[in-house]
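Attaching the record inline, Q. Sequence:
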Amino acid sequence: MPVSANIAQHLPLMAARQPDRAALKVPRGRTTSGDIDYLSLSFTELDAEVEAWAAHLRARGVATGDRTLVMVRQGLPLIAAAFALFKIGAVPVVIDPGMGLKSFLACVARSKPRVLLGIPFAQIISRIARGSFRSVDVRVTASANPLSRRASGVVVKPIAAPVVRAADDLAAILFTSGSTGAPKGVCYEHGMFEAQVRLIRETYSIEPGEIDLPMLPVFALFNPALGMTTVVPEIDPSRPASVDPAKIVQAIQQEQVTNSFGSPTLWGKIADHCLTGNISLPSLRRVLCAGAPVPSTLWEKSHRFLPNGKLHSPYGATEALPVSSISSAEIEPLARAEARPLTDDKPSRPNQELPSDFVGACVGRPVNEIEVKVIAISDDPFATLAETRELPTGQIGEFIVRGPVVTKTYDARPEATTGAKIPDATGGVWHRMGDCGYLDAEGRLWFCGRRAERVITANGTMFTEPCEQAFRPLPGVARCALVGLGSCGSQIPALVVQPSKKLSAREKGLLAAELRERARQHTQTESITQFFFHLNFPVDVRHNAKIHRLTLAKWAATAKAYDLP
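Structure, as predicted:
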């Protein structure tokens, strides 16, 4: 019998290894004493639940290879649905509903699912937007009841083994957030999921029996394979910024959570709550913070509320994760030795090649099995690796990566695949991250900004991260974004600021003067003379951290600026 790479095989293995340990805890209210009341399933019970879902899907005609659009709630429905589909060899299609209805429907139409597995509201949407759902032949309703299949008595014994899948068989289609363009479906193979589980376990020394609180629902899908208990957070995944940090802290303390994943925006709110209330979280061994560069203030605060753990920043993308990682223990010496304080006007560069006062955001060394190169920036596709020009240490270029977690194609988007993938002579594929940065002499990656968001002026190219670092520490600045006005090659650099509170016209003028004074002090920002104020930055729903700078640039093109020579 051939060796199977089906990611679903990890759940029954964990059920045999730790049958009575909790696999999943779903909040369902409060006890009389004020504790969070959880519905708890052991690994054995979760395995049975997944088999019940798989049996129901088979009975409804879902077969191996069927693309299945998954529109269910986070927690048990998402985990059970995904593993049931993996188990029968079907292909989950997961689209972030927060991207907006128009983009969502376009993604549905392009992915052409045969099956819709969704809550009643999703079924209604599919009937209204018939054009986008025309490929759907089978509709399976997922009840709002968190134990929708097991509670109805549909449990099959004995539990069947997962369908055998080869490493290069299509496992799932996961959509990007679309922060710098149209969302794209990323084709994941079973072998890529296997590699992700292996590298995540090795990189962060994760052990079976740990307890995870994932604030991005899709990350909960790794936990059954890693043997971690999933504590579903009390958070609305469609509005993560509205999270109540007190509820997250209560869950961490009550359940003795050891691991958590969330964006810098969410963990910034949690950190402030902890520091205000003099709260520490001693059970946490690690916090994985991704979706945008971790601000220096959060690195500093992490030591005060994580007495026994570390803040980590994994770097990657939907198309390739993880690529690299760095921890708070590594950031501290870098901050002292390489990155100059933001209040110091004397540049301190990692080497003579870097044309910047600021050094970007360090995202660590590549994880095991991942290769990274920096090539000369180009907006054109490359047919072969030989067409690229690799840059030396310290020069800013574009990151390309290769390894077992690097995906090979986008679904039904051949032009996007051509633009983002570079075949090499060995038959492998390099993925263009779309990010600019450089490698230092120690082999660490430094992120300088998205390729699509760089500002190309008559005097050279400006990158978002090094420039924005100059302005973030100013009081009253909640967020800021470098944008380019005008035509590429002769763009005028400008800064858009989201103030920390609503400002009067006089207050805006005073802050604009401070921003201009700060701009004058640094080589890479001295040409910025135009400043805009925007109350609510457009950001991605998934992390509430990635700023849509291209959207801001369009807005700024017709908005009134404070123009200070």
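The chain has 15 helices and 26 strands. The chain has three domains: 7-30+43-208, 319-450, 454-563.

More tomorrow.
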